[in-house]
Design brief:
The complex is a heterodimer.
Chain A: H1 2-51, E1 63-67, E2 75-76, H2 78-85, E3 103-106, H3 110-113, H4 116-119, H5 126-136, E4 140-145, E5 156-157, E6 159-160, H6 165-170, E7 174-175, E8 183-184, H7 187-218, H8 221-236, H9 239-258, H10 266-290, H11 294-302, H12 307-318, H13 320-336, H14 339-344, H15 362-369, H16 378-412
Parallel strand pairs in A: 2-6, 3-4
Antiparallel strand pairs in A: 1-4, 1-5, 7-8
Chain B: H1 2-45, H2 50-54, E1 57-58, E2 63-64, H3 67-98, H4 103-117, H5 120-134, H6 141-165, H7 169-177, H8 182-211, H9 239-249, H10 257-291
Antiparallel strand pairs in B: 1-2
Classes of the chains: A alpha/beta, B mainly alpha.
């Protein structure tokens, strides 16, 4: 009897222990799922908001565009509307309509045609006057708020095309706050990002490679142990400090050396990014070089090759994939870098033709504009779409690194 | 024979030129580090005073101190670590001690790598969409801390995993052989041995968090807020954002340059101290563990 009870207690104890173990394991599992969940959530939120760009008309909420009822044009592209209001297109015939000069009209222009008394003290006659003006001007294209649209409006509302993915990617103008229609072409931003990043890699790769070779193959162990932590320390300096250093040192330097009107250029961005990418490139390529089997190096030396010949005929080819991985990761860092680039590149959203002019990158655009974009608006969504593009680019880069290093590890076995 | 001699000479000359060049480049990189550090230390040293770190900004941020920014950054570091440290360590324990090699582990690993590769500005976008707008935390310390916490989570996981891997398997086997359960083995044997290295990782991620700007731009950072946060739902100033503001878009950029140097110096000091501390800890405990 007594014996049996003790058995029960031990049973209970082991049961309790087992349950405790299970609970702990579940907690651990949930914790390790956090990163996966976060990645999924990031994708979800980025794309939910970003896709919104393509579901909305790029005209300001509550506003409309109207033409004279006799006008044959039914639909216009955002870029065409911008050109009209910039007076670059001046005749409807250029858009396939009648041969008639275009008369752009904005709400505030009404005061040129009607006196204050006619419009009323509180603008209460605005709707009828706008209607009157639109119906008597055959070439008009009017941009005004929906609250000024009279009940028996005679003009015809223009349909504005939604932005397509292709237009978004290939559009050459980025004026998300433009009136009357926002211009959402991200080509200059994508090109700006790529230019600055590749410029950075062009600078950083040879330097980084040389340093990696020195650290891994040439330097004595003591020198290496002294230099490596210092180089890694470069990676620890916050990007905003790099941006500040670039702003007060590199920007004036670039301006002086190349005799430019402004020093805030793509080149300044590339230099700062190159400094920031160096530790990544050096650490990863050095690791790869260190993995070269000793026997291979010794075989090369035994055949009479010099130390230098051994390095570039044996060590570098052997660690090529590691070096590639380092370079790709360096590009990835450069593409995603925000603050330093924002502070030194001048942020002009034009298609870059030279690194000696201001450029604007995707991360810098998001950082500079999100604060001003109304939550849920077209601009806000466009910035999330930019975030999607950035995410996709960096995701692909990570995958590429994975593939490259994976191939390397296969080679070794 | 003569020809061979000449060849050997050329070979040796090429080699010494190349080696000399590589050495020069390596030392130049280190020199660059010292130039950046020296530049900011020299320019910023005269600015730093007791008032600078204990007073509110004044006169459109051209005078006074950066007290609220320091406090804000401390709060953010604390908040993000309160989230990232436990979650990261538990996740690493699961990955290293519990889960067996297989596709599940591969997926978790890959996702952690992917998260580490996400640009910081995308974390900012995400934090704004989820914490600020969806969960309606508003621009707050809570939203900023969680965003930063997610950002450093992969770092914490990776360093913890490495520390756990460094623990010799014989410890685990011995403990399990004595009848200890998996969790008992992990919590009483493995973790204490790995603890110093985990701590090192924690300190390094503190350095990382305190310098990040992009993720806090839209989740917590205030342009100018001359008071301290009183709850986790308050906005706060932060050192890196403050540096960005006063060096690019302050009311008077020239006049606030001195303040910018001072702020940059404080940031650098935080990063340097956390790096040195981490290294010292690693060395100190490294010896101790070996002696045991």
């Amino acid at each position: 009897m007594y014996f049996c009870g003790e058995n029960k207690i031990t049973d209970l104890k082991t049961n309790f222990k087992q349950i405790k173990e299970k609970v702990i394991e579940t907690i651990l599992m949930l914790s390790s799922a956090t990163t996966s969940i976060t990645v999924v959530l990031i994708v979800f939120f980025l794309f939910i908001e970003g896709v919104g760009v393509f579901n909305k008309k790029p005209i300001e909420e509550g506003f409309l565009l109207a033409v004279h009822p006799s006008n044959t044009i039914k639909k216009l592209e955002p870029a065409q509307i911008k050109d009209i209001f910039d007076k670059k297109i001046t005749n409807w015939s250029a858009l396939g309509g009648k041969n008639e000069p275009i008369v752009p009209f904005r709400t505030e222009d009404i005061t040129e045609f009607y006196s204050e008394e006619e419009l009323g003290e509180n603008f209460e006659h605005f709707p009828e006057k706008i209607d009157e003006y639109v119906s008597k001007t055959p070439g008009v294209i009017a941009f005004f708020s929906e609250k000024y649209k009279s009940n028996n409006f005679h003009g015809r509302e223009l349909d504005i095309n939604k932005i397509t993915v292709r237009e978004f990617l290939s559009g050459e103008e980025w004026f998300p706050t433009a009136h009357p229609v926002a211009q959402m072409g991200v080509k200059p931003l994508i090109l700006g990002t790529l230019w600055v990043s590749f410029g950075a890699i062009l600078i950083a790769l040879p330097i980084g490679l040389a340093a990696a070779i020195y650290l891994s193959e040439i330097a004595r162990k003591r020198t290496r142990n002294f230099l490596k932590p210092l180089i890694e320390l470069l990676a620890g300096i916050p990007s905003v400090v790099y941006g500040f250093f670039g702003l007060v040192v590199i920007v004036p330097l670039v301006q002086d050396v190349f005799n430019l009107p402004v020093g805030e250029t793509g080149l300044a961005g590339s230099i700062v990014l190159a400094i920031m990418a160096l530790p990544t490139i050096i650490t990863i390529s050095e690791d790869a070089m260190n993995n070269t089997p000793r026997a291979m190096k010794e075989a090369s030396l035994a055949l009479g090759a010099s130390h230098w010949q051994t390095i570039y005929k044996v060590v570098i080819p052997y660690s090529a994939s590691g070096i590639t991985a380092g370079a790709i990761l360096g590009i990835g860092r450069a593409i995603g870098e925000t603050m330093a680039v924002l502070m030194v590149t001048g942020n002009a959203a034009v298609i870059p033709h030279t690194l000696l002019a201001p450029v604007r990158t995707i991360p810098a655009t998001i950082a500079a504009e999100l604060g001003e974009a109304a939550s849920g608006g077209m601009h806000y969504k466009a910035l999330f779409a930019l975030g999607c593009i950035l995410f996709i680019i960096t995701f692909c880069i990570n995958m590429l690194v994975e593939v490259v290093t994976h191939r390397n590890s296969h080679k070794k076995h | 024979m003569k020809k061979e001699n000449r060849l050997a000479k050329v070979k040796r000359r090429n080699q010494s030129i190349a080696f000399g060049l590589f050495q020069l480049i390596s030392y130049s990189i280190v020199a660059l580090l010292f130039i950046i550090l020296a530049f900011i230390v020299i320019k910023g040293f005269s600015v730093i005073s007791w008032e600078f770190i204990t007073e509110m900004p004044k006169e459109g941020m051209t005078q006074g101190g950066i007290y609220p920014a320091i406090i804000g950054t401390l709060c953010l570091v604390l908040g993000s670590m309160l989230f990232a440290f436990p979650v990261g360590v538990l996740a690493a324990i699961y990955m290293n001690e519990y889960v067996k090699d297989g596709w599940g582990k591969k997926i978790i690993k890959q996702m952690t790598n992917n998260l580490a590769g996400v640009p910081s500005i995308v974390f900012g976008l995400f934090g704004m969409a989820l914490f600020v707008n969806k969960l309606e935390f508003g621009d707050s310390l809570l939203a900023g801390s969680l965003t930063l916490g997610l950002l450093v989570l992969p770092v914490v996981i990776r360093t913890t995993e490495e520390s756990l891997k460094a623990v010799d398997d014989t410890f685990r086997h011995a403990s399990l052989a004595l009848g200890a359960s998996k969790w008992q083995t992990t919590s009483r044997v493995v973790l204490p041995i790995a603890f110093p290295n985990i701590l090192t990782g924690l300190i390094l991620s503190i350095g990382r968090v305190s310098g990040e700007t992009a993720p806090i731009l839209f989740t917590v950072a205030a342009y100018f807020l001359p008071k301290l946060p009183t709850s986790i739902f308050d906005q706060a100033m932060a050192l890196p954002y403050h540096l960005y503001v006063i060096s690019t878009s302050g009311t008077n950029i020239e006049a606030s340059r001195a303040m910018a140097y001072g702020t940059a110096l404080i940031l650098i000091i935080i990063v340097l101290v956390s790096n040195l501390l981490a290294n010292a800890l690693r060395k100190y405990f490294g010896k101790k563990v070996k002696m045991n």
